[in-house]
Amino acid sequence: MNFSRKIYPVALSGALALASMPAFAETLSFGIVPQQSAKKLAKLWTPIFKHLSEKTGTTIRFATANKIPTFEKRVRSGEYDIAYMNPYHYTVFSQKPGYDAIARQKNKRIKGIVVVKKDSEIKSLEELDKQKLAFPSPAAFAASVLPRAKMEQDGMQIEPKYVSSHDSVYLSVSKGFFVAGGGVMRTFNNTSPDVRENLRVLWTTPTYTPHAIAVHPRVKPETVEKLKQALLEMNTDPEGQRLLKTINFKGIELAQNADWDDVRGLNIRLLDHLIAQ
Predict the structure, then answer these.
(1) Taking CA atoms, which of 108, 151, 238, 242 is between 20 and 30 Å from 51?
(2) Which residues contact 275 (CB under 8 A, 6 or more apart)?
């Protein structure tokens, strides 16, 4: 089945880079959760996919969505052959349609953050009670689910506003549209310096297993093995190391389904409706 028409188009620079790649017999789409704009994600990930294509002999093409809920629907429909998804997404979509984790960021635990303007007088999470706060999407695990769960546990009443991406959270808080918003350290470090320098981290969540790189059941086992090997080799290959630094990865390690049992233990039900379909 060909899903290529529905996949969010790559930025022009990414398309040009992919056009220069050698033609391989097999082509796979690699969907990236849209924590940032499609243009920024294409710039960061397209060189990585070109590298992996050359190492595996399979053309790997960048794909994403314009917002996280759209990405969730596409993963549920199996539109991506490979996907980079948040920890909660993986616990859901490993059930249906059956994505299987093969790798994750090495020596990494994900934690959410709540940011405020650098000059804000707010010093504690409790001071955000009764405020409108910015989040990427309802099911953004560390940037939305965890902070909101903590606030609810503490009896806080906030009004969440969903602004599509982590970068949109940081920008809207830096401009004073919201007093605070949720994100994660990796995207915070990757956001525009002029935005980041106008913010400070107010609070951080406990840590959990990070995002999964997972493959759809239709991907051939021999292709999966080549992909695993190519991902691991990035840890020692100078070019691979350089590319990993561009996405703030210190390394990649192989993963298995049980690695996300800590997230399953939270018993989050936000996307149960997708599993029921």
Answers:
(1) 108
(2) 76, 92, 95, 96
Both structure tokens of 166: 């982590």
Helices 38-56, 12-19: axis angle to 10 degrees equals 10
Cβ burial 127-146 (10 Å sphere, 16+ → b, else e): bbeeeebbbbbebbbbbbbb
Sign, Cα dihedral of 41, 95, 271, 101: negative
CATH number at 214 reads 3.40.190.10
pLDDT the model gives residue 22 = 55
User: What is the mean pLDDT for each group of 10 consecutive residues in the chain (277 residues)?
Assistant: 41 46 80 94 97 98 95 98 97 98 96 97 97 96 95 95 95 98 94 96 96 98 98 98 95 98 93 89
Q: Which residues share a beta bridge with 134?
A: 161, 181
**Residue 276: what pLDDT?**
87
Torsion from C-alpha of 106, 112, 66, 86, nearest 10 degrees: 40
The structural domain count of the chain equals: 2
User: How much is the pLDDT for 24?
Assistant: 75
User: What string of H, E and C letters represents the secondary structure of 203-235?
Assistant: EECCCECCCEEEECCCCCHHHHHHHHHHHHHCC
* Cα atoms found within 13 Å of the Cα of residue 204, Cβ hemisphere only: 12
Last residue of a domain, one of 204, 226, 241: 204
Token output for 102 = 């093969």
